């Protein structure tokens, strides 16, 4: 009998939680020799998500819920689920039913065939805006060009089944600025992509906007490649090289022909161009410095405040959770 844990990060999902459990249950019950349990992670929702989760876990033995002490973001919420999972494998799914539960049986099939990481690959991004698609294209192209040691999977998101050994590997990576997609790739092992169509949201609204996606992309780049730094060095050297040639040209003109070479426009262009270059170089260094700043503090990735009706306490950050501890109110 295999045991699989389904991890569901939830942020303001009060409308969909009641739909989610029966919709998934309907499909997983049909899978032979497999027992499923659920971990819902309430990521500091501001609506009644926590109430709904309390009701759900009271009604079903196979449902556990974790409630984080505030909104930590989806990446951290997933990590909380991963830390608490006990299955031989784990499936990560969005709460809004955009990840079709009928694909679970296929994932389990490939896992039993020996794959450690069975990931859903979205077949069309048609429902997305032109801007979002273009930005995604640029992001994948840049990542592909610069991360030489391993390739970022395209159009593959968080909908996936992970074997216990991937889970344990992910648990080793306690970095704060989590770019989970990159971490899955970093871990390696046998990957299998299965196509799926992203469904429309069952209810509620997406929390992602352009800025959030841009931030995620920046995090992805700065935590997985130092290529932008190298690029800046390269550009700096190239510009200096051409500046030298130009300097000889100007000197020659002035010494041999007494021609002072027209000044203002050239100067302005060069000053503004170099100023811009220097500022962006500083910005890029700043991005990496920011990463170091966040990581160097070594804070925990998330704090769980409540689990199945019990309040939790942290005694040491390295033994993350003192389970079953009840605090007096
Ligand atoms: N989510 C989360 N914390 C957040 C934002 C989102 O746990 O800060 C969850 C959300 O509840 C959902 C999943 O992450 O289950 C994907 O979010 P959403 O549907 O808003 O994003 P989209 O599907 O539009 O990319
Ligand atoms: Mg969604």
Notes on the protein architecture:
With 329 residues, this protein is α/β, with parallel strands linked by helices. Helix content is 48%, strand content 16%. Strands 7-5-6-4-1-2-3-8-9 form a nine-stranded mixed β-sheet, with helices on both faces. Strand 2, helix 2 (49-59) and strand 3 form a beta-alpha-beta unit. The chain starts with a strand and ends in an 18-residue tail after the last strand. The mean pLDDT is 83. The chain binds uridine-5'-diphosphate and magnesium ion. Residues 94, 96, 98, 201, 206 line the site of magnesium ion.
Observed structural traits:
binds magnesium ion; alpha/beta; 9-stranded mixed β-sheet; elongated; binds uridine-5'-diphosphate; 329 residues
Instruction: List the helices and strands in order.
Output: EHEHEHEHEHEHHEHHHEE
Mean pLDDT: 83
- Our Rg estimate from Cα atoms comes to 25 Å
Poorly predicted runs are none
> How big a fraction of the residues is strand?
15-25%
Question: Helix count?
Answer: 10
What is the makeup of the main sheet? 9 strands, mixed
Strand order of the largest sheet: 7-5-6-4-1-2-3-8-9
Work out the number of β strands: 9
* Distinct ligands, ions and cofactors found in the model: uridine-5'-diphosphate, magnesium ion
Cα(first) to Cα(last) distance is 41 Å
Helicity level: 40-55%
Structural class: alpha/beta
Task: Sum up the overall morphology in one term.
Answer: elongated
